[in-house]
Structures are given as structure tokens and as C-alpha cells.
Automatic annotation (TrEMBL):
It comes from Gimesia alba. It holds the Pfam family DAO. It is an enzyme of class 1 (oxidoreductase). It comes from the Bacteria. The keyword Transmembrane does not apply. NCBIfam families: PRK11259.1 (NF008425). Keywords: FAD, Flavoprotein, Oxidoreductase. One of its GO terms (molecular function) is sarcosine oxidase activity. This is Monomeric sarcosine oxidase. The lineage of its organism: Bacteria, Pseudomonadati, Planctomycetota, Planctomycetia, Planctomycetales. Transmembrane segments: none annotated.
């Protein structure tokens, strides 16, 4: 079967589902292809929750994108009638001179992001269940919170379908042929001819964009759910998320949604993945060592051994920033990759940007710092 469309999106995870939605809401004929199921757990956009925050210590250039992302998440909630974003707040702690705390304050100064500095005498009362190391600075961002990650992906797809998008799940790509006139994609079931192509393939980006030779690496990451012994972490008691910059790694987590477990993980580190299709999803003896140490030192009201785990992948660039761009030799192709373990919160706006690039060839969003041209000298 041959299908002809204006726009084709390869990969319907966080970014691809959003790109599909933004193309469909513009009234365009668009098809999305996903090698797994809807809101699947084989890539990077799963695990119940993802933090969203505006005091972006990674780089202040992200903040205008975040401001638009917040608007778009709220619009999607209104359109769908679903709760996708919970503004529970975020506590960030670390050495005062460290890149994390310094970055939080820089974001606050440059973009007037609401950030509270919490005094040492207030920490215990405001954040019960945490033993913040001596000398650490603690901040609180009231506008931060978390996104329900699978619901966000599913909702983007459902809303796109209601506006005419076609989606094909559990179809692996056999070949992609790109010419000056069109793009041809063959799957196990069909032959699709498109005028424009958006590639949002996550950990499979290097394979899908081999001719561009993007400097991407994929690492294995493990998420943990640990049992709580006290109710001090509970969402229903007004508790929020956390990010702590320790000497041996950066750790983040969420309030307890069910009163029985807390989800947390190490943001730093990760073992290289040679083939994302063969990720080891078993829990290894060494996987929980750093998180268990963090629990013992900082969160004593959690049991140190996880009762549940999930594996995902970070796809990272050398500088840790995303790459969102057009194909250097064929403007019919645009892509987003390297979302580095901190990208999901941007999915709503990245989809809009990719739709802009595919339809107009440019975007009004400030994404120059995400261009692949920065890798030219590598």
C-alpha cells in the first residue's frame, strides 16, 4: 500500500508526538510512524513523571523556550480536558558556588523567575524528610512541578488524530530514501511518500540520520521507586520535587503520588549503549549504589532498596544541549535530537518549533544555540 502525505514524522515519543500535533492543528496532511506502541517504555519518554522548571541552571537561553512550553502545556490541558502538569514546586540544593545553584540564581536574575532562597533554619520545617548537608544552599521554585509523561505523549497523539493525523504504531522502518523532490519511507506494511520529513527518533537518531554524522551518545539510565516510611514526602501533603547536587552526582525525584513510594534517580553518569534496540532492562547489582548512598545521607525516611525500577536512555550531545535543525543538504528534512535527559519538559514547544521548520523553513523561537553548526569544529 502506498500512502502520499505532506508531512511525515518518524518517532512518536515526547518530541515526535508534539510535532505531529502541531502539524495536524495547522490543517496539514500528516502521518506519524512509531516502531513501538503508543506512549511506550522502550525509549526515553516514560516512567510516570518528568520535572518541569523555569530556573534553568543548564543555560539561561532555554528559558524563553520554557516560557512558551508552559503556555502550550496549559493549552493542551484545556483542549483535552486532562491534567498533564502538576505545579507542586521544586526544592534545589547544592554547594553555593556550584554550577547548579549558580545557574538557578542566574536564571532568576535574567528572566525574573520566581526563586526563594530558604534559610538553614527553615529547611527542616519546609522539607521534612531531608537532611541537607552542612554548607549547602537551598532554593525553592514555586512555579516548578512535574508532567505526567505518558499522558502527555498520549494526549498529543489523540489530539493530533482528532485533527486528521494518521498514525501507525509497531511498524519498523525498512528504508528511507531522500531526494530533492520527495521522501520515500518503506515499513514492513506500507510505502509512504512525503514532501517533508521530521525525524524525532530519540536513541535511534544516529541511525536515522547517519549521513549527518551527529555527535550523539546514548547512555543507559535507571529510575527507582523506593518505599516511604513517613508521610513527609507525600504530594497530598503539599510536597514537591527535589534536585540535589551532591559531590558524587546529581540526584532528583518527585513527591510520593501514592503515599507508598518515591520515584528518584541519578541524573549524572550512565553506561554507554551500543545498540538501543538491545538495552539491558534488568536491575544490575551496581545500578542502585549511588542512589542508595544518596538516600542514606539525604532522605532517611526512604528505604534504601528499590521496590520497582525502570530503564530509559539519555541521548546526549558533547555539550549537553539539544540539537534542533534542518538537514544541511536537504531542507525537506528537519530533526530534533540529543535531548540529554532534560528535554521532555520542552516537548510542547519543540514540536511547535519542528513544525515551523518543516513548514516555513524557519522559526521565530530563539534556537540558534541549538544549531548543529556548533559541532562543525569537532
Amino acid at each position: 500500500m502506498t500512502v502520499r502525505v505532506d508531512y511525515l514524522v518518524l518517532g512518536l515519543g515526547g518530541m515526535g508526538s508534539s510535532a505531529l500535533y502541531h502539524l495536524a492543528r495547522r490543517g496539514l496532511k500528516v502521518v506519524g510512524i512509531e516502531q513501538f506502541g503508543v506512549a511506550h517504555d522502550r525509549g526515553s519518554s516514560h516512567g510516570d513523571t518528568r520535572i518541569i522548571r523555569k530556573a534553568y541552571f543548564e543555560h539561561p537561553n532555554y528559558i524563553p523556550l520554557l516560557q512558551r512550553a508552559y503556555e502550550l502545556w496549559h493549552e493542551l490541558e484545556q483542549e483535552s480536558g486532562k491534567e498533564l502538569f502538576n505545579p507542586c514546586g521544586l526544592m534545589v540544593a547544592g554547594p553555593p558556588e556550584g554550577a547548579v545553584i549558580q545557574g538557578v540564581h542566574l536564571a532568576s536574575r535574567l528572566y525574573d523567575v520566581a526563586v526563594e532562597k530558604v534559610s538553614a533554619s527553615e529547611v527542616t520545617a519546609r522539607f521534612p524528610g531531608f537532611q541537607i548537608p552542612d554548607g549547602f544552599e537551598v532554593t525553592y521554585e514555586p512555579e516548578a512541578g512535574f508532567l505526567y509523561v505518558e499522558d502527555c505523549v498520549r494526549t498529543h497523539i489523540e489530539c493530533a488524530e482528532r485533527q486528521g493525523a494518521q498514525v501507525y504504531f509497531n511498524e519498523k522502518i525498512q528504508s528511507v530514501t531522500i531526494s530533492d523532490q520527495l521522501i520515500e519511507v518503506k515499513t514492513e506494511a506500507q510505502h509512504i511518500i512525503a514532501s517533508r520529513l521530521i525525524v524525532t527518533a530519540g536513541a535511534w537518531s544516529s541511525a536515522c540520520l547517519a549521513e549527518i554524522n551527529l555527535p550523539l551518545e546514548v547512555v543507559r539510565k535507571v529510575l527507582f521507586w523506593n518505599s516511604v516510611e513517613q508521610p513527609g514526602y507525600n504530594l497530598d501533603q503539599g510536597k514537591g520535587g527535589f534536585f540535589v547536587d551532591m559531590p558524587y552526582g546529581e540526584f532528583y525525584g518527585f513527591p510520593s503520588l501514592d503515599g507508598t513510594t518515591v520515584k528518584l534517580a541519578e541524573h549524572t553518569g550512565g553506561e554507554l549503549v551500543a545498540n538501543p534496540s538491545h538495552l539491558n532492562r534488568e536491575l544490575l547489582e551496581t545500578d542502585a549504589l549511588a542512589v542508595s548512598r544518596f538516600i542514606g545521607e539525604v532522605m532517611p525516611d526512604l528505604k534504601p532498596d528499590p521496590v520497582r525500577h525502570a530503564t530509559c536512555m539519555y541521548t546526549r550531545t558533547p555539550d549537553g544541549h539539544f540539537v534542533v535543525d534542518r538537514h544541511p543538504r536537504n531542507p525537506r528534512v528537519v530533526y530534533g535530537a540529543g535531548f540529554s535527559g532534560h528535554g521532555f519538559k520542552f516537548a510542547s514547544v519543540i514540536g511547535e518549533i519542528l513544525a515551523d521548520l518543516a513548514t516555513e523553513g524557519h522559526t521565530t523561537h530563539p534556537i540558534e544555540f541549538l544549531s548543529a553548526s556548533r559541532f562543525d569544529e569537532l
